[in-house]
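User: Just a sanity check before I run the rest of the batch. Below are the structure tokens for the first item. I only need the designed sequence back.
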């Protein structure tokens, strides 16, 4: 029997309400001890004093009892909704431990919910990701996945793969039975449809990964082009030092800011030029690394200065990465006399602005760019684990084509088994009996 666990379920700090949660076989008994009540009505909020084991009054709080299996974890759960602040919540926590509970490990409530069949892995991951959602679209996607949307999608594909495996095993083991003549053709058609659907979901999920993790936006340009001024303008406070001295920013600076419905991470980089010392050289290397790690790159040019080799180095970087990254070109200092040869970057559709006066045009462009591919109705994988498992599924399907074409159905079944196991790792383990159910149910074999 699992021990009863307890934890503070709300964020640390001062607030109006703090929630202390118990889960396990002794949760109800501990709830009665602290409330000194003869009973608690399931799913009913009871306002009651809470006491330590020495009868010291801790607080007056709401107590809610969830009787198993109708709780988040599938076990008896008791929640104390006490007044906020760490002192009161910690006192309730200590009283629960004194009464026989132990402190929960990180994620243990969700783990118990999974082990007790209340959640599958996709729902557990959605809960963890929703807490740190970086955009409104991400929150909507994750809320639907908590309700089982991704699970239903995966289960549907898994069911189709099980049918394909059943077809293959029937041909291998029951060739003497009356089987459809076009079994192999059916397998080819079903398999190709599954591969296309998974590949589309995989490509879309990789492309929109910034939606879940938060978009990284790198600001690049030569020294004194206005990168730090742009960062400060977007943040609306003086985060970076602004100076006319070249090389003032010698390392990358990262800050978060909300653009539209998205929480993004802005990265101000060191000016890209020929370095004069080791520290500056390292800073420039980190700037190039920031470009490689960014989802969007803002390339700044000083419209008040004549184009030079340092500007051309920025253009070379744009050309090097433009197939992999989204670039926004900015002609800064538009309030000054113009000397920059705009023809050299006109095909990038640069935005003309003065970051010290108004950056709204850039904000609107960033918001549109991040919203462009974020159809919240499209199925999406939300973690690297899910993406890796789906890639392995597609790879196993690819490897199954050749033995199917050659009629080597034993090898074909091996690869389809591998595909099912990889896909099943997203939700729940694969049991061989599932294939047998398909096999005998579909063809009425073994008369």
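Assistant: Here's the designed sequence for the first item:
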């Amino acid at each position: 029997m699992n021990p009863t666990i307890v934890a503070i379920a709300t964020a640390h700090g001062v607030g109006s309400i703090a929630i202390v949660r118990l889960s396990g076989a002794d949760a109800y008994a501990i709830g009665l001890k602290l409330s000194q009540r003869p009973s608690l009505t399931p799913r009913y909020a009871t306002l009651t004093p809470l006491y330590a084991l020495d009868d010291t009054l801790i607080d007056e709080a709401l107590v809610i009892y969830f009787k198993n299996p109708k709780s988040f974890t599938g076990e008896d759960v008791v929640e104390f909704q006490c007044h906020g602040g760490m002192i009161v919540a910690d006192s309730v926590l200590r009283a629960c431990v004194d009464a026989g509970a132990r402190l929960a490990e990180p994620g243990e409530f969700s783990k118990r919910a999974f082990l007790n069949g209340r959640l599958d892995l996709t729902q557990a991951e959605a809960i963890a990701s929703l807490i740190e959602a970086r955009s409104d679209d991400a929150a909507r996607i994750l809320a639907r996945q908590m309700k089982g949307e991704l699970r239903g999608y995966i289960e549907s594909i898994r069911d189709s793969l099980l049918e394909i495996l059943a077809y293959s095993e029937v041909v291998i083991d029951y060739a003497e039975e009356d089987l459809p003549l076009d079994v192999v053709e059916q397998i080819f058609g079903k398999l190709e449809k599954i591969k296309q659907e998974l590949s589309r979901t995989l490509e879309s999920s990789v492309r929109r990964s910034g939606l879940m993790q938060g978009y990284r936006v790198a600001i690049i340009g030569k020294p004194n082009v206005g990168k730090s001024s742009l960062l400060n303008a977007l943040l609306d406070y003086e985060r970076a030092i602004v100076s006319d001295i070249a090389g003032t920013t010698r390392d990358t600076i990262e800050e978060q800011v909300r653009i539209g419905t998205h929480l993004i991470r802005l990265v101000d980089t060191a000016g890209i030029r020929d370095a004069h010392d080791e520290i500056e050289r390292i800073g420039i290397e980190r700037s190039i690394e920031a470009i490689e790690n960014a989802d969007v790159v803002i390339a700044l040019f000083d419209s008040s200065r004549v184009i030079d080799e340092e500007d051309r180095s920025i253009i070379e970087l744009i050309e090097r990465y433009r197939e992999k990254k989204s670039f926004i070109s900015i002609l800064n200092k538009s309030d000054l006399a113009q000397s920059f040869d705009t023809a050299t970057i006109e095909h990038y559709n640069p935005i003309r602005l003065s970051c010290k006066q108004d950056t709204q045009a850039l904000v609107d462009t960033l918001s549109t760019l991040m919203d462009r591919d974020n159809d919240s109705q499209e199925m999406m994988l939300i973690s690297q684990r899910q993406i890796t498992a789906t890639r392995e599924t597609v790879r196993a399907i690819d490897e199954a084509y050749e033995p199917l074409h050659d009629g080597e159905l034993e090898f074909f079944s091996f690869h389809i088994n591998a595909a099912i196991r990889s896909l099943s790792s997203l939700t729940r383990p694969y049991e061989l009996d599932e294939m047998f159910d398909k096999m005998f149910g579909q063809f009425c074999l073994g008369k």
